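LOG
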Amino acid sequence: MAFIFEISTSSTQQYIPNYIISIIREFAIPARVTQEEQKIVCAFTSEHEKLQECLEAIAQRLPASFFLKSTQSYTTEENIEGFTEINNRYPLNLGLCPSCQKEMFDVSSRRYYYPFSSCSCCGGNHSFLTAYPYTRENTSFKFIVPCSSCESEVKNVGLKEQHQINSCHECGIPVRLVNKTTERYANDAGSFRTMFEVAAKALLDEKKILIKTTFGYRLFFHSKFMDVDSILMLINAKKITDNLSLIPEEFNALLSIERPILHVTLKNEVLKKQLNANTHYVKYPDEGFTILLASELQKLGLEYMAYKDVDVTCDADMLMDYDLEVQAQKDLRLFLNKEDIFLAEGERIAFPSLFKQKSEILSITENLVGISQDSGILFDDMEYFESVQSERVNVLEAVHGNYHSKQQIIPEEEASFMSVIAEHALFDTRCVGAYFDEVPSFLYYDTKNVLRIVPPKKFEVDNLFTEIENLREGSDRLISNFQKMMPEAYERLKALQEKEDVTLFEATAVVLGLKDESMRGLVTEAMKFVGKGGIQIDTHVKDNRFDNAAFLASIISYQLADVSTTILSYSIFESLGDYFNDILQELKGKTKAQEIILCGAHFANQSLFSRMQRNLRMTPPRMNKNYPISKESCVVGGAFL
């Protein structure tokens, strides 16, 4: 007899199955753990005397994940023999699991206040990778000789089994804390605790601290210095809902093993006034250095702090550093709208990954590459691979270089669109879709090729005033009135003509007078709207493409009519949602396509996505599942174009 325990999951990554396997191996129970389509299946020998104890250990120790859904269990007549091995083919950068956090705060542990604490299934393991295959010799830990206790842990069953960067105070990495006049070192439990106490007090005294974390350099500072580019880090789990208005799914995602960045609603009036916004990007402490600093700050009475991902050249009052090379990944931003959840942008969690569909095409984007393997395609940073052979190479158009005699340049929107087709295995299905990252683009897949049926139209600011003046009779008066009634916005918009690569939404934010002149500024302003409906912004097409001049002229007209900036910002996304829906439905009808696809970073905003969700409720769109909807997914699509 076999006892079967199933966990529904949308992830194809191996860290949750590995965590379960590690716990099972501690109890020496014959079992088989497999990751199948949308679920993890754990099959145990049902008669084993330690089965119940093992299941309780899994329930208590398994880290939360926003990928995990429901569970079910049942029995079968199957006979289970043997033990499942850990799949440690490549490392990930994850938050710390409950077991490693507990060890880091256990005064009797060899890793008490040791910021490099982690295991095979959690922590900043990928940051220290230097090459494949993933062995200690191919990490920056190759210079650190493990002590006998750490060596034993790696060879024995448990969470440290096969942990390639295992270390502790006895064999670990010393850390130095430097300011303008002094320098101190930490290499044992006492000195590490003192170091984080000193750092926390300095931050409370409004000093800026640059720390080389296991995820790369971060600049930490008091929240009073926070701006729109900062991340608000909540450091007291019990106080999170005092400062943020969260739905349960958002709260659970913040504390999950993935530790994503979320765009959420603020409840704290001080923060709202300081940021002049109802929403902000937030995070919960993830890796060792950050968790230990947060712990000491919590003792000093703080409920949150702020930070930015930076590099070593960033100016700071204090520096916490160590002599190991670290390769930082772009952090993960998660989009969550009730039951809808997807990766908005970033590399962490999504890469490295093994895509089990085969392809002989080598895919290259700005810093990622897809390498064909026996079991599929391994996607990771190019620098970890020495040389590969391939029949053909697809290179993203933004990448410079000649990599192959049969090299094909691929547009960003086509590669991103194809990544959704590959993830959902829609190779034999006709699809239409939209890509939205600054410029709208519409595409069609005919089961063989991706076609740009409404290609993107680059925004040109140089002749913007002339284009608006020539839109229709009387449009010339619009510009003269804009200059007369809103001279500051007019001059700022005119000044954009001196810049390169100005985007439509940068110009839109300038017209609206927003301090944050970007799409992010528009999204933040739109989230202040609490009404039921906006006004119609001109989203007409000209020559079969989005008319940028008409769009901005419409906004200028409403501005001159004294319509509030908040209503206008919300209405922009409501109108864009209707625009995308109208074009997609028309294209779907003409092409007889069976599926609609959405991709591109700008779909990851609540106002636009909610409108798209409402408009497409009868034909729910397909989006990326395990890869970001932003340009990071291009490396996946590039392997199949």
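LOG (cont.) second protein
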Amino acid sequence: MSRRQFLTGAASLAAFAPFTRLLAQPRFENDPFALGVASGYPAPEGVVLWTRLAPEPLTAGGGMPRAAVEVAWEVATDEAFRNIVRRGKEAAGPRWAHSVHAEVAGLEPARHYFYRFHAGGAVSPTGRTRTAPAAGAAPERLRFAFASCQQYEQGYYAAYRHLAGEDLDLVVHLGDYIYESSWGRRHVRKHGTEEPITLEEYRNRHALYKTDLNLQSAHAAFPWLVTWDDHEVDNDYAADRSQDRDPPAVFLMRRAAAYQAYYEHMPLPKRMQPRGPDMRIHTRADFGALARFHVLDDRQYRSQQVCPRPGRGGGNVVPAEECPDLQAPGRTMLGAAQEQWLHDGLAGTGARWNVIAQQTLMARVDRAPGEGRSFWTDGWDGYPKARERLLKFVAENRVANPVVIGGDVHMFVVADLKTDFDDPGSPVVATEIVGTSITSQALSQKSLEAWRADNPHIKFADSTRRGYTSVELSAGSCVMRLRTVDDVTDPASGARTLATYTIEDGRPGAQREG
């Protein structure tokens, strides 16, 4: 083992060291709530509340003692906290980086609440959250936004400032919340440290991103659902295989550190606590009878990418005729168990809209203009039989209004999803909307335009803008607004709507407005 590999293992083991003291009234030299507050996973009767005590967030241990600290929380119907309806206490210890995941119950469905935390005389910022509608209820609307890919060095988070100002019920984050690597052009700020490998290094990388006040404001404004992609661990990793072809046992130690740090910094329920390198994050979330979200994990269980570059792992653009393994029927993006879980959730849904929240572009994209075909193997194009199984299941079971949302590729894409992309007459079985990145740089628009004629099912593609997507679901339609910032290098940038698309109830395929 190298020194860094040893440190990875040592850091993972050290995280399990027990604490022996509980500090009810600690003293802080700095604000222990420097990373803000968040809520997530709303249910009709409750929600998860999150914070992490870190008075020195970018130092080892966040500036906290190796002891547990008592953290009180309270939930009120008003911002002044005159009517507190629930309160409780948590022990935030070093095992989980002094993070708090308070699972509040006994709330009323479909209403807003305010929350805050107390520790050692310090009071956190106030957050606002909202519970889900009651099971079977038929709300008039559901408004949510989804976002992804926020490389810290490549831009400011002005997009989150505008997102926080919208009238939303929910935010869905689709991965690449942090980046382990430094890349790209014209950086506006720096990570300031090398690529994380140990638990402490991943904690500090998450903390750096969390210090951004616009990101904090978006967390404090709405409850979130989250899933990860590759950069939360390592670019293009697949299950236990890294891009750099590290020994799987060594890479799993790194994955364990990354998964733990991710859990420690997200408003996740305690049932999602990782166990070493394993962490179940895929889940369902219902919003009455109007919508069901199927939140997927396409990293932890996938088959290794085929036909990689010599001496490397991860994705590659390959001519289809030179890579017959692409069509191997047993290859999976989700793993057999999660694939079956998704089928069960789609078959058993009674929701009017079924939102499949996953990481990347699902529509087929032939990247070789003219004769021949080439595909990017890290996305769904690297797992065509798995995509075919899913879309055939959707079609054969007549799943109500399936809408696939994704990120990863740093561009807006609106596409028709079909069971047979080779047949122009094949019916559209689902609609896909891929959001652009919050900050991460993209392929050129010129490259996209070169592919357009070979991919007629793609109705819109734009890689020139950064931003997010807002969605309004109602009984009759799904309206999607592609929101962009004017200048990602300006923290005070304005924002605008690039395009608006509508899906009508019972008619897959998005139509552009205006």
